Amino acid sequence: MPAVSLISDKVQFIDEMYLAGSIWDNQSMAHEFIFQAFSTVPEIQHLIFTFFLLLYLIILSGNISILSIVCMVNSLHTPMYFFLASLSLLEICYITVIVPQMLASISDFHRTIPLANCAIQMFFFTTLGSTDSFMLAVMAYDRYVAICHPLHYTLLMTWRVCMWLVIGSLILAIVLCLQLTALVFTLPFCGNKPKINHFFCDVPPVLQVACADTHLHQTALYGVVFIVLTIPFVLICISYVYIVAAILRIKSSSGRHKAFSTCSSHLTVVFLQYGVCSLVYLRPKSSTLEDEDKKLALIYTFVTPFLNPLIYTLRNKDIKQALRKVIKKWFHLGLES
Q1: Distances (CA, A) of 129 to 23, 202, 235, 257, 306
Q2: What is the maximum span of the chain, computed from C-alpha positions, in angstroms?
Q3: How far apart are CA 226 and CA 148, in angstroms?
Q4: How far from 220 is each of 3, 187, 316, CA to CA, in Å?
Q5: Looking at CB atoms within 10 Å, which of 24, 137, 169, 291 has the fewest?
Q6: pTM for the whole thing?
Q7: Please, what is the average pLDDT of the chain?
């Protein structure tokens, strides 16, 4: 992919500069990082490895189920469920970028990660996470159009518009995160194998092992986070102000209940995702505790992708009905065979 190639070329150029001794002559160049996020006690390592492996498989199963159901059931071929399926696909890619390396680190198979691989992991993680954030804003806009302008919904939310909203979210995330990742890896990292007190190459823990001034990089991080988290969250809040006002004008209590139920699942995910990520990335550096950041990172890395399928299935009547139809169909096919 062009983005990955650019990052790799940038890291290779920095490596050559270091090896040539043209910059930071008094520092030793780091070619790889060491993760030191979890316990080194073998018994505890086995338990942690088993727990996260099972959680990873459950997350994959849940999101793949939603993706499959939306693709298989014709009644779910609507913009709302197209965005939900896109979100599930993002969650699958998002967690797969992190978990295999994390499990290898826990099991002591490979606690180190090369500089270039760390840059690539950071790029994909930040890109997919940012796209996820933009998608939540897109889903809020979809609900706004459906509830506030129901007569114009099919005209405004065409398949072409839906596709471009998803593609646009991804392109914007790539542009922002490619620049941020390239900027982070222009820094020198001191020592032979700097230790990252985390379980993946996130921006804040990598900046903490740099042996140069990182004020510019912290400012760039806050700027990207402002675009990725704050602006979409404000747009979501504005959308829901209009949505709630429109729902309150509905005379039928059953109609109000149905409208609120379609929005409550989305709002639950929004507050969980934006709240936790804001605590990690928008806090001043002086108040950031590394161990606390790791715990919060576990929430948006594992808990949110784990809860998303549950929230959208248990609280969504259409998804539950479609799931029953698919299960019955598979059951009958199994009996016939």
Answers
A1: 33, 11, 18, 31, 15
A2: 74
A3: 28
A4: 19, 13, 39
A5: 291
A6: 0.84
A7: 82
